[in-house]
Write a structure and sequence with these properties.
This protein is an all-alpha fold and 161 residues long. 56% of the residues lie in helices and 2% in strands. The protein has one domain: Up-down Bundle (Butyryl-CoA Dehydrogenase, subunit A, domain 3). It binds flavin-adenine dinucleotide.
Length: 161
């Protein structure tokens, strides 16, 4: 859970960068932010960023009382890694065909960094699928996946049929 908390606080492009880009980047003579589809995505990222902020506050409050991060911290990793990937994609798309090109002076942009790094973050510290299972079973209390190896030590798991 500590690793998930750390990965869930991944640095990179966020709603502020996406907003700035939307206001400054031109789309056929108009700022991108005038585009309804862009505004809809900005609204989603805004909600996700603020949901993350308050979920982290809740975790910090629990830590300050001596409690360990609970399974609900899986939510922050799923949301932040997917948001980072989505914002990275947006930044690359906004650059059109030049979006992939690395500026010789500036180096990799924060959007390109997000685009390249976020897929790894969705795996490191537990994949999206594993974290969804954690949330389903341990936060929402849904029935568990069938597990033929449940309760078996790793050395006792059959390796041949
Ligand atoms: C950038 C990066 C940094 C890393 N850093 C470290 C590190 O510092 N130290 C370290 O020890 N490891 C590190 N790892 C490894 C990482 O912890 C594992 O890659 C990760 O936990 C996934 O395990 P796996 O690769 O064995 O995938 P697998 O467990 O083989 O999963 C393969 C696929 O099957 C899916 N899957 C597996 N089981 C289930 C299930 N029960 N239900 C649904 N779907 C399932 C997974 O979601 C995934 O899509 C890092 C990985 C990355 C990408």
């Amino acid at each position: 859970m500590n690793e998930r908390l750390a990965v869930g606080d991944a640095r990179g492009s966020d709603i502020e960068e996406a907003l700035t880009l939307s206001k400054t980047k031109d789309d056929a003579g108009e700022a991108l932010i005038k585009n309804d589809a862009v505004r809809e995505r900005l609204a989603d990222w805004f909600c996700e960023a603020n949901g993350l902020k308050y979920t982290k506050f809740r975790t910090i409050s629990a830590l300050s009382k001596g409690e360990a991060p609970g399974p609900e911290a899986s939510i922050t990793k799923i949301v932040s890694a997917n948001k980072l990937q989505s914002i990275g994609n947006f930044g690359i798309d906004a650059g059109d065909m030049a979006g992939m090109l690395i500026d010789e002076d500036e180096g990799v942009s924060s959007f390109q960094g997000a685009w390249l790094g976020a897929p790894g973050l969705r795996i490191a510290g537990g994949t999206d699928e594993i974290l969804r299972n954690v949330i389903a079973e341990r936060v929402l209390g849904l029935p568990q996946d069938p597990r033929a190896d449940k309760g078996l030590a790793f050395k006792d798991i059959p390796t041949k049929v």
